[in-house]
Recover the amino acids of this structure.
């Protein structure tokens, strides 16, 4: 049966953490210097957690947290971060990401940059911190875009097929869900739980690569070029609610390998290609695909 919670799409991160004391809990939030990640980091810190923001922009600050440099597209930098981390990690929120790069870009290891940043960098970080994460929680920030495309194991790096910004983004977000499924399958005795989620539509720097026509199609830009907020958009504080729900709520203690939608409920699994609001595609939670992706990532990060 699908898991339900008392929270809704309008709940905020503060609502989810109300009455929860996180004193002594250590949390890493990647990409937490702004937007959704910053909202999650603030709420966790306000609840007493020791929050570290891992970001490419270490000069950025969020009250009550500390900041460390991390470039997820650089596997050497990810390895450095993991090797120099001292002490346990009670929760790791894989929040950092890039979206719909207009043209094909590659990381230093040759991976398409969205797949390298959104998925592989987080895979390397989580596996690099395996011992520190024992008994903790991993939260993969995915997207409803995972319904747009599976991982193309025949050509994940767009070496033969034409590059498409949204196909590449969708593939990376499917990979994020598969990472949560893979962690649940490959680390069953660690006591570490891993779940994925979608925050919903929110105005953040994630949209910085989108052109005006795309923003208008989302209802997020008017005819004069002004940014507008449609009714279906959420605030960063609302979007962060599911992040902190999975990272810290006692309601989800022991829950692993699941996907939660932007309404703070476990999502319905639907056939791949059959897009439904708030659902998760079957290809994103397929155990065989999760195992295949796990092996691909292990090879790439050795």
């Amino acid at each position: 049966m699908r898991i339900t919670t008392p929270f809704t799409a309008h709940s905020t991160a503060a609502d989810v953490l109300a009455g929860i004391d996180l004193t002594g809990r250590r949390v890493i939030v990647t990409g937490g210097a702004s937007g959704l990640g910053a909202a999650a980091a603030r709420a966790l810190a306000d609840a007493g957690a020791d929050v570290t923001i891992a970001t490419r922009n270490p000069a950025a600050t969020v009250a009550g947290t500390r900041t460390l440099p991390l470039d997820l597209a650089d596997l050497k930098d990810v390895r450095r971060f993991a090797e120099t981390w001292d002490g346990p990690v009670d929760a790791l929120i894989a929040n950092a990401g890039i979206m719909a790069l207009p043209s094909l870009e590659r990381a230093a290891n040759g991976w398409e940059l969205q797949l390298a940043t959104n998925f592989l960098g987080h895979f390397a970080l989580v596996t690099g911190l395996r011992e520190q994460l024992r008994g903790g929680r991993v939260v993969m920030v995915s997207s409803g875009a995972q319904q747009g495309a599976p991982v193309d194991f025949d050509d994940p790096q767009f070496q033969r097929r034409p590059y498409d910004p949204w196909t590449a983004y969708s593939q990376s977000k499917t990979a994020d869900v598969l990472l949560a499924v893979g962690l649940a399958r490959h680390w069953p005795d660690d006591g570490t739980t891993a779940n994925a989620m979608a925050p919903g539509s929110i105005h953040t720097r994630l949209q910085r690569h989108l052109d005006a026509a795309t923003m208008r199609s989302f209802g997020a830009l008017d005819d004069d070029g002004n940014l507008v907020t449609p009714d279906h958009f959420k605030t960063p504080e609302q979007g962060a609610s599911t992040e902190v729900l999975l990272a810290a709520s006692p309601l989800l203690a022991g829950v692993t390998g699941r996907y939660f939608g932007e309404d703070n409920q476990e999502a319905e699994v639907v056939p791949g290609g059959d897009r439904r609001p708030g659902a998760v595609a079957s290809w994103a939670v397929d155990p065989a695909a999760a195992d295949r992706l796990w092996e691909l990532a292990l090879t790439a990060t050795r």
